[in-house]
Amino acid sequence: MWLRSGLAAVLIAVLIIGLFMLPGYSGSLDLNGDGVVNCRDLCVVIAAFGSHNPLADVNEDGIVNIADWTIVARMVGVCGPVASFTYTPSNPITNAWIFFDASSSTTCHGTIMNYAWSFGDGTTGQGEAVSHQYAATGAYTVGLTVEADSWLVDSISTIVLVVEPPPPPPPPPPSENDPPIASFTYSPIDPTVGETVTFDAYYSYDPNGDELTFKWSFSDGNTAAGQVVQHSFSDVANYKVILTVMDIYGATDSTSKIISVESIPPTASFEYLPDNPMVGGNITFLSTSDDPDGYITSYLWDLDGTSIATSQNCSHVFTSPQKFTVTLVVTDNYGQQSSVSKELNLTLRNGDLLLWRSQASPVTLDPRNFWTHVGMYHQPSNMVIEARPEGVAFYPLADWFYPEKTCVRALRVITTQSIRDAAVNFAWSQVGCQYDLLSLVLNIKGSDDSDGLGWYCSELVWAAYCNASGNLVNLDPDMFRVTPDEINGAHEHVELRGEHLEEIPDTIWRDILWGWARCPVDLSITDPDGLVLNKQDSQILGSVYEEVDTDGDGEVEDLFAILDPKIGDYKIQVIPEPNALPTDTYSLEVGVNNETIVLADNVQVNEAPTQPYTIESTNTKEFYIWHYIFEDSFGRGTTLKINTEDKSFKFTTTSQDYGRRKATYMRVRHEAITIFHQDCELKLTSIAMGGRPDLCIAYIKDLVAFNKYLLFDKPGIE
After folding, report:
1. Spatial contact of 208 and 247, defined as CB atoms under 8 Å apart
2. Which tens digit of pLDDT belongs to each residue from 421-462?
3. Two domains, one topology: 81-162 and 270-278+285-345
4. What is d(CA 598, CA 588) in angstroms, rounded to the nearest whole number?
5. Contact, 34 vs 22, CB < 8 A?
């Protein structure tokens, strides 16, 4: 009924306004297209209520309704309502009634017909005056929308802050209130820096039985609350800890105690290198000690009961094969001490093996990668049985100590001690035998000394254990040479007992030049200094020449070996024996370290070259074989060396060495050798006869220095 009467009133108002032709705003709200916005446009909206007429849908929300009417009405000049409200109390609390009053809302035409509330907590209300409760604290947005009988509306909102009610006032104290009594305990009794200390006020009480609150002060800027609290102190000091207790009436009591915080003792620890130390080795001790609340001020090492060190790290050589206890004591800046001990087992048993890696060994291996000498420990005498170049003998254990030897390893053969003892007895029985370098060079080993040549170092050790165990312990199953490196790698039969290792400089290298000739010829070797080695004379230091029947066929072979070859040319001259027939044949092999080169293979004696075979040793530890060497016969100082196998040559003058070069072209036909070579530095043309007589003509041009050389090696002219 109200709607109908309200609608009628609106229509009457529109008609009245229309009669006066109220001017309006000219623009997009001119719905009827008469050029002005007036009440006739309101009629267009009213006529389209509830429809989807796009003309009357002013706010373009898809339907014509009161919102579109409001927009046009305000443009025409129809006055709408103004929303306004108040609420009490101004500081509301939870679960209390709040009264909202919208009587301050106004309108200039008609009356306000509807008041709609939203309380910000999901609930709503209707009416000019309403009340509401909030169960929880918070800031709530309260909104009011008012609607006049002209269908115009207005809205307003505000934030209402709801808080908790204040605590009730304490009850009035009794006429006589006894104050509480403060008391506490703590543990541990002697705390250290950073350690958690527990404080307990369990023994505090109130004579009236009232509830207490607890407050703590630790004198380091920190406080806490509660009956039981925990705290740690960051520095060594005396701290006054204060406990204050208060009852419900505000009466208090305090008590305090001095807490002495001590430093944490340092932790002593150390490591040693190598991990498997041995007697005589340079053992390095590294302190890994730590102090969590300060720093270490002193170190004291007790190394063997008599030797003392005071540095953070130290080294020591133990000279007796036994067990040692090493102790480290550390002291921190607060005077606290800590110690640690470790036991080093440096014992050696009878029959243990000592291996040495050094340039001083006569073995022909690279000492940077291989073990080169070995001996056997004799426990009763505390000495080592070794086969050295001086012969098989007892040598002092101290010869294996640092720094005399810098790379030593101790091995124990995995067998019974009785077999180890028997092996030592075998080695003992060989004391006095000579050193056997030739068997070493020829890759020959024997389990006895039937060849009469003696022993080399690893052969003696191998033979000792083979004989002692009936070949059950074989440190090298190979049928030829046994080396210290092979003994070190005999993992099935040996175990590591200790070592002391230091890096050997790259310059350390021990080389050997050796040769072998099958009869009927003799050899004469001349070194770069002109010193001679043959079966009658040995002028070269560290050399040996022997005639031995190595294969048991009744014919002896000529053998030689030279340690540490000098830089320069070694010349090997083949000399037929007096009883040799021209058709007899000979063979000649030479070796440099582990490389073997065949110089002659079943060559008839009458075809033996008049010139010596030449092996050149360089300063880079390289060795070259030269089949022919031609020297100028007229004093020009030019020399040409030729290797017909790999087609290389080397040209030198009195002032220039052009080095070994691969020939651009070399042809060997019968005994004629033709060479043509050209590179960015050297051009060479030569023709030579390598037979009897030797002849060579060569023309050489230095393309950089523009020097020209001539070589003419003429037979019969020296």
Report:
1. yes
2. 999 999 999 999 888 766 665 556 777 766 666 888 998 999
3. yes
4. 6
5. no
For residue 645, what pLDDT band results from cuts at 50, 70 and 90?
confident
Q: How far is CA 498 from CA 13, 420, 625, in A?
A: 119, 18, 43
Do strands 124-126 and 223-225 pair parallel, antiparallel, or not at all (unpaired)? unpaired
Cis check: omega of the bond before 274, within 30 degrees of 0: yes
Burial class (CB in 10 A: 0-12, 13-18, 19+), 567: exposed
Six-digit token pair at 454? 């003696």
Give how far Cα 624 sits from Cα of 129, 267, 666, Å.
121, 63, 18
Instruction: Write down the domain spans for the chain.
Output: 2-76, 81-162, 185-261, 270-278+285-345, 353-500, 511-625, 627-718
Average pLDDT for 382-388? 94
Query: Under a CB-based contact definition with an 8 Å cutoff, are residues 111 and 75 in contact?
Result: no
Return all residues near 601 (Cβ < 8 A) that are at least 6 apart: 587
Pull the structure tokens for residue 279: 């007697």
Q: Which of 148-152, 407-411, 562-566 has the highest mean pLDDT?
A: 407-411
CB 240 within 8 A of CB 258: yes
**Among the listed residues 438, 612, 634, the one whose alpha carbon sits nearest the alpha carbon of residue 532:** 612
CB 641 within 8 Å of CB 626 = yes
Please say whether the beta carbons of 184 and 200 come within 8 A.
yes
Name the amino acid, one letter, at 242: I
CATH number of 270-278+285-345: 2.60.40.10
pLDDT digits (tens, 9 = 90+) for 585-620: 999 988 876 677 888 889 998 888 887 888 888 766
CA-based diameter of the chain, in Å? 163
The first and second tokens of residue 150, run together, are 């002209």
What is the architecture, at CATH level 2, of domain 2-76?
Orthogonal Bundle (1.10)
Entry pTM? 0.48
Instruction: Tell me which of 3.40.1790.10, 3.90.1720.10, 3.90.45.10, 2.60.40.1180 is the CATH number of domain 353-500.
Output: 3.90.1720.10
Per-residue pLDDT tens for 511-555?
778 888 887 899 999 999 999 999 888 888 878 888 877 666 777
- DSSP letters along 567-584, please? SEEEEEEEEE-TT--TT-
Minimal CA–CA distance to 458: which of 611, 598, 356? 356
Q: How many CB atoms lie within 10 A of CB 170?
A: 9
Q: Which fold has domain 81-162?
A: Immunoglobulin-like (2.60.40)
Q: What CATH class has 185-261?
A: mainly beta
Q: Under a CB-based contact definition with an 8 Å cutoff, are residues 637 and 626 in contact?
A: no
Cβ–Cβ < 8 Å for 286, 313: yes
DSSP characters over 670-713: TTEEEEEEE-SSEEEEEEEE-SSS-EEEEEEEETTT--EEEEEE
Contacts (Cβ under 8 Å, ≥6 apart) of 482: 445, 458, 459, 462, 475, 476
Q: What is the pLDDT of residue 413?
A: 95
Q: What is the DSSP secondary-structure string of 628-664?
A: EEEE-TTS---EEEEETTTTEEEEE-SS-EEEEEE-S
Distance CA 101, CA 160 (A): 14
Contacts for 229 with CB less than 8 Å, ≥ 6 apart: 198, 199, 214, 216
